[in-house]
Design a protein that fits this description.
The chain is 61% helix and 2% strand. The chain is mostly helical and 457 residues long.
């Protein structure tokens, strides 16, 4: 039986309009019914076919992650991610293709050279792009050319700068793929255990770490991983975005250890080098007098020049993770990273949390006085005349110039670029002494350099 077709709302309105001569209702009543009918049919139309069609056009944007008991779905997801990363890896330029690109660039250079740099203009640049193959297509765009265009009078770019740009891009993509292989969750971040596995498997590829004993590997990995998490995970979530790892310089420092001829100075300044890791771990062992693998407050008090105040160390053991009142190696690493990098915002955040005893979000005169009293007591113990707190307080506020003249926030310390000096004044007698005698020390350094110049002549 055929379904009776419903008349369209416009036809109904026309019919009613045609019969309006016989209708004895008032104009207002007719208009009211007309509006009511229009609203009814329009609403049906709007909520009916059009809504169904628009809903079907919305792209899917959420995909539920497999639950722990959905083993098959988890395996499928892992396998699909691995295939995807392999495909992305094949899209990158290999060594042979990079060599071919360099050959083409060198062949199409446009004279004259700029200093010692071979140059190429836009026309030749496009020609190389056509010959270099599909993998190189994304590098030969007007945008990339404009980025590398500086002050050449002929409108050319340096071949070496362009090639280095390509190499850097390829390296970044290779590294991202390499890190993503350790992203067990597949969410674009690494947990502490993921990064530990990555660095552990990276050790054999770094010639500068050849001399490390295998028994030290776990301590080395812990030392390396802590730097990433201390600076890149300020909220202590236990995970770091792969994007943040690539954006910072830490991975560059770590992979610098591939250089077999790395200078001694570079090794000493590189946190990830074998000498640096052995130095930090050696200090920890030297402080651990009772050899129980942990540090008490008394043992930690001998850190550095043994001039950290007792009040500050009390705060360290109150706020930081301890086990029966003693500090383990991981907590010690955070402590060392904070004190050795006092200019960095993450280090200042660590120290500020210790100075902000009442968790108010700012330091006031009482806070400053509380910590500086310990400095004054140390000065008395060493037979020195204590400095007036009022003078120090005024100097600190003058240095920081906080938005609120009575409160110093963490952001005030960071913005002032004097946060490291303020921290040193409040927690370390040696740091305060260095600040107090800065003019004498500068004069002494100048005298030493002058003497050295005379000796050279």
């Amino acid at each position: 039986m055929a379904t009776e077709q419903r008349p369209h709302w416009s036809d109904v309105l026309k019919k009613r309009t045609a019969n309006s001569i016989k209708d004895e209702r008032s104009e207002d009543e007719k208009k009211s019914e007309e509006t009511e009918l229009f609203t009814k049919y329009y609403t049906e139309w709007k909520e009916g076919s059009q809504r169904e069609q628009s809903y079907k056009t919305i792209p899917r944007f959420y995909y539920r992650l497999p639950a722990e008991d959905e083993v098959l779905l988890q395996k499928l997801r892992e396998e699909s991610r691995a295939v995807f990363l392999q495909r992305k890896s094949r899209e990158l330029l290999d060594n042979e293709e990079l060599q071919n690109l360099w050959f083409l660039l060198d062949k199409h250079q446009v004279p004259p050279v700029s200093g010692e740099e071979a140059m190429i203009n836009y026309e030749a640049y496009l020609q190389v792009g056509e010959k270099a193959g599909p993998k190189c297509k994304k590098f030969f765009t007007a945008r990339v050319y404009a980025k590398l265009l500086h002050s050449d009078p002929y409108g050319r770019i340096s071949i070496m700068q362009f090639f280095n740009y390509v190499m850097r891009k390829v390296w970044l993509h290779q590294t991202r793929i390499g890190l993503s292989l350790y992203d067990v969750a597949g969410q674009g971040y690494l947990r502490e255990s993921d990064l530990e596995n990555y660095i552990l498997e990276l050790i054999p590829t770094l010639p500068q770490l050849d001399g490390l004993e295998k028994s030290f590997y776990s301590f080395y990995v812990c030392t390396a991983v802590r730097k990433f998490f201390f600076f890149l995970d300020p909220l202590r979530t236990g995970k770091i975005k792969i994007q943040d790892i690539l954006a910072c310089s830490f991975l560059d420092d770590l992979l610098e250890l591939r250089d077999e001829e790395l200078s001694k100075e570079s090794q000493e300044s590189n946190w990830f080098s074998a000498p640096s890791a052995l130095r930090v771990y050696g200090q920890y062992l030297n402080l651990d007098k009772d050899h129980n693998g942990m540090l008490s407050k008394e043992e930690l008090s001998r850190y550095g020049t043994a001039t950290l105040t007792s009040v500050f160390l009390d705060r360290v053991f109150q706020e930081c993770l301890t086990y029966d009142g003693e500090m383990d190696y991981k907590t010690y690493l955070d402590f060392v990273l904070a004190l050795e990098n006092r200019k960095e915002p993450a280090a200042l955040q660590y120290i500020f949390k210790l100075l902000d005893m009442e968790n108010q979000g700012y330091l006031n005169v009482f806070s400053l006085n509380y910590f500086f009293r310990a400095i004054q007591e140390q000065m008395k113990m060493h037979g020195q005349e204590p400095v007036s707190f009022q003078d120090v307080k005024d100097e600190i506020f003058d240095m920081v110039k906080p938005k609120d003249p009575y409160k110093i926030t963490l952001q005030d310390l960071v913005n002032s670029c004097q946060g490291d000096t303020v921290a040193s004044i409040l927690i370390d007698l040696n740091g305060f002494w260095t600040y107090e005698n800065r003019e004498v020390l500068v004069a002494s350094d100048n005298d030493s350099s002058s003497t050295a110049d005379l000796d050279d002549t």
